[in-house]
Amino acid sequence: MSDQQPTQASLPLAGTEATTTNVEKYQFEPIKGYPMLNWRGKRPFTSTHFYPAQLKEVHGEEVDGWRNKIFWGDNLQVMSHLLKEFRGKVDLVYIDPPFASDADYKMTIRMRGKKEKVKVGVQHAAFQEKQYSDLWTNDEYLQFLYERLVMLRELLASSGALLLHCDYRVTGYARLLLDEVFGAENFVNEIVWYYTNKYGANSSAFDSFHNTLFFYSKGKGFTYHPFLIPVKEARTQPVRRWNKELGINEWLRDEKGNYLYQESSEKEAGDVWEIPVINPMADERTGYPTQKPEALLDRVIKCCSNPGDLVLDCFMGSGTTHAVAMKLGRRFIGADINLGAIQTTTKRLLKAGEQLLQGDLVSSNSPIFAGFEIHNVNHYDVFRNPVEARELMIEALEVQPLAMGSVFDGEKDGRMVKIMPVNRITTRADLNELIAGFDYKAWERRQAESPNRAVERITLVCMGHEPDLKAHLELAAKPFKIDVEVVDILRDKADLEFKRDSEAKIVVKKGELAIERFFPMNLLQKLSLQKEAVEDWRELVESILIDWNYDGAVLQPTVVDIPGKDDLVKGTYKVPDDAGTIRVKITDLLSESWEGSVSHG
Predict the structure, then answer these.
(1) Which of 163, 227, 219 lies closest to 186, judged by CA?
(2) CA–CA gap between residue 69 and residue 374 (Å, rounded)
(3) In the beta sheet, which residues pair with residue 165?
(4) Which of 254, 355, 375, 482 is the most exposed place for a label (fewest CB within 10 A)?
(5) Is 42 exposed, middle or buried (0-12, 13-18, 19+ CB in 10 A)?
(6) Domain 386-492: top CATH class
(7) Residue 79: which of 184, 169, 156 has the closest Cα?
(8) Which residues pair with 374 in a beta bridge?
(9) Using CB atoms within 10 A of its CB, is residue 288 exposed (0-12), middle (13-18) or buried (19+)?
(10) Cβ 464 vs Cβ 504: under 8 Å
(11) Domain 503-599 has CATH 2.60.40
């Protein structure tokens, strides 16, 4: 894809044939659901922009013209990108979005090969690295979820379905949002996932032992296959079959009208699913926070899709949805804003794909879609996540941060500072939250005290912006006068250093590619704070990928060196005779990567 900036884009309304050319503006199907949930700062969401994507890596082959897709970026931008090709083509959506839990989720980072090398006097051989924050102010969470549900409805096929995973913190809000976006008539089930192996925490009230999955269809004809679970004793019971046209379970009868019976040691699962949480020692455990068990997604995907269907999860996390979809012969698309999620999922999919192709896993005689691509949306590679971006910008610009809850992010030299979206241009639509939060009562007092002075001095910090951004904000504030300054990081502060790049040296000697040294600067800095000694650079490496004939644009690795938890990468590799430009990607324990090339021959 080109590196052009986002442009206004249009497609016909849902229900008409989608196009992949001459995109000018997307217009969503009107929201007609009832009841409607209101919150402070609620903004209509009726159109979006097209965002370009850059293909970065290719793993495996196409099957029947398809290769699975993973996107690194804000999932709202990713879905805007997907609309061009996949509007109305997704068969099943499963999402496990943030739960507004008011917590930071962290992953334990431990040096490889250090299990038996913990030194005397060192308290921690590992440290915690934040993967994402589930912190929300005012009603940002509701707007966040609302916009993504609207986009997901646009991507769903007319016979598609969505399952939203949440817990007690947001079940009431989520149900109302789903009713509004999809229509209450399209509610199918409220499923309770009961953890059978969780123990109480001696809390002062009843402990929570379940999550909720809301099951909605986009329209009629959605896929449903009953899931059978064993019973303690076989029993004779009437035979039922799902009537897809009527949308009901029917009791079957013989030619004389008598009910049919059968003896069965199984029964259909109801809406309470007893599935254990992941054992800490289980093979599927990745260490990624909030990881869900494969058994849960296995049931979701088997019951609500068919082999070859397209499954979308845009809150990818550890990649459970996608690993299970691959094993069950479904095609999939995934997205996550966290770089750690991309790395964790990539490792998991490579392992699952290899096992499938070798016949170690059963795919129910379905096609094996083991290949996948990794894309970036809008060069989302300066920051690991938007929370970190905000913190880094505040620090780099020497802004005094404000307490949570303010519409502004900080204050500097008497100006109120707002950090706009990172790694994409800021548009007028991005100003809606700021405009909705203006304190007009305070402005009235200031104007009365000093009629000729600006009632507010505002600095917008952007990563590129529309040319009329300043004028639009000033116009929105009328009749009050405000002083608006736009700081463009890409143009005005190009010398700001947000993170230190890794360094490495690779050479080709005597027919072998050797990595002589590797310095992941951010990781080394964190380890220095932990007083952890590094004896071998390989202790810092999560994976090494090598493309022997790099085309200058897309990494297509034929060497995938991903060792076990306590093993080290090899570090030296035999170079094939037909190698040309060799591209090496080294990913460290923080999921940050270094890439470099060397010529052969």
Answers:
(1) 219
(2) 6
(3) 213
(4) 254
(5) middle
(6) alpha beta
(7) 156
(8) 57, 70
(9) buried
(10) no
(11) yes
Please state, in angstroms and rounded to a whole number, the distance separating the CA atoms of residues 443 and 454. Answer: 9
Q: Do domains 7-100+136-227+276-377 and 386-492 have the same CATH topology?
A: no
Q: Which residues contact 185 (CB under 8 A, 6 or more apart)?
A: none
For the beta carbon of residue 32, count every other beta carbon within 10 angstroms.
9
> How far is 498 from 487, CA to CA, in rounded Å?
16
Q: How confident is the model at residue 11 (pLDDT cuts 50, 70, 90)?
A: very low
pLDDT band at 171 (very low <50, low <70, confident <90, very high): very high
Contact status, residue 234 vs residue 264, Cβ threshold 8 Å: yes
| Residue located via tokens 């079957």 | 252
The C-alpha atoms of residue 531 and residue 464 are separated, in whole angstroms, by 40
| Nearest Cα residue to 110 out of 594, 571, 534 | 534
Provide DSSP, 127-182: EEEEEEEE---TTHHHHHHHHHHHHHHHHEEEEEEEEEEE-TTTHHHHHHHHHHHH
Distance separating the N- and C-terminal Cα atoms of the chain: 31
Nearby residues of 433 by Cβ (< 8 Å), 6 or more positions away: 41, 43, 140, 143, 407
Quickly tell me which residue has 């035999």 as its tokens: 574
Instruction: Match 């209509």 to its residue by tokens.
Output: 44
Q: Are 9 and 25 in contact (CB under 8 A)?
A: yes
The 3-state DSSP class for residue 429 equals helix
Q: What are the two backbone dihedrals, phi and then psi, of residue 470, each rounded to the nearest 5 degrees?
A: -60, -45
d(Cα 58, Cα 549) in Å, to the nearest integer?
Answer: 13
- Cα separation, 397 vs 592, in Å, equals 24
C-alpha to C-alpha distances, 3 to 54, 80, 375, 376, 579, nearest whole angstrom: 8, 16, 13, 11, 29
E strands along 378-502, which residues? 400-401, 410-412, 415-419, 456-462, 482-488
C-beta separation of 35 from 86 below 8 A: no
Domain boundaries defined on the chain? 7-100+136-227+276-377, 229-268, 386-492, 503-599
User: H or E segment at 311?
Assistant: strand 310-313
Gyration radius (Cα) of the chain, Å: 26
Running DSSP on this structure, what letter comes out for residue 315? S
DSSP state of 468: T
Are 524 and 598 in contact, with CB atoms under 8 Å apart? no
Query: pTM for this structure?
Result: 0.74
Ramachandran angles phi, psi of 195, nearest 5°: -80, 115
**Alpha-carbon distance 438 to 281, whole Å?**
51
Q: How many residues does the chain have?
A: 601
Is the link from the previous residue into 35 a cis peptide, with omega within 30 of 0? yes
pLDDT confidence of 259, banded at 50, 70, 90?
confident
Strand partners, 262: 237
Chain segment 477-532, per-residue pLDDT in tens = 999 999 999 988 766 655 555 555 688 999 999 899 999 999 888 788 777 655 56
Query: CB-side exposure of 12: number of CA atoms within 13 Å?
Result: 8
CATH code 3.40.50.150 for 7-100+136-227+276-377: yes
For residues 140 and 193, what is the distance between their CA atoms, to the nearest angstrom? 27
> What one-character-per-residue DSSP string does 248-310 give?
EEEE-B-TTSPBPEEEEEEEE--SEEE-PPPPTT-TT----TTPPPHHHHHHHHHHH--TT-E
Give the ranges where 2-87 is alpha helix by DSSP (H): 75-86
Residue-wise burial string across 262-279, b where 16 or more C-beta atoms lie within 10 A, e elsewhere: eeeeeeeeeeebebebbe
